[in-house]
Amino acid sequence: MHAVFLLKCWFEQNQDFFKAYKLIATLKDSTPGVANVTLETEHYLLDINAWNHGTCLDIQILELKSEISVFPHVGECETLSIFQDHLQQLIAWLKNKSQKNS
Length: 102
Description:
Layout: H1 3-13, H2 15-20, E1 24-28, E2 34-40, E3 44-51, E4 56-63, E5 68-73, H3 80-101
Antiparallel strand pairs: 1-2, 2-3, 3-4, 4-5
Helix pairs in contact: 1-3
């Protein structure tokens, strides 16, 4: 399996979550070996990029009000399991932020 495939699977598997938490979720994969997922909430814009080369994963979270960005992960993942862990941590983060903002 490759990083782009894993990101696409994660995106498809979490559609119910995205809908339940009222996220605007888009997937772009028009370039071979690269995929991008954008998640929009009322307070945040998340940009997730995956590359097959080097099993790279970049996650950027922009707080819309302050315009401050954080990067919970940038670069190569040592294993596909670590790659998947970063994506699952993002779901936990979104759940936590949603509860705090409700």
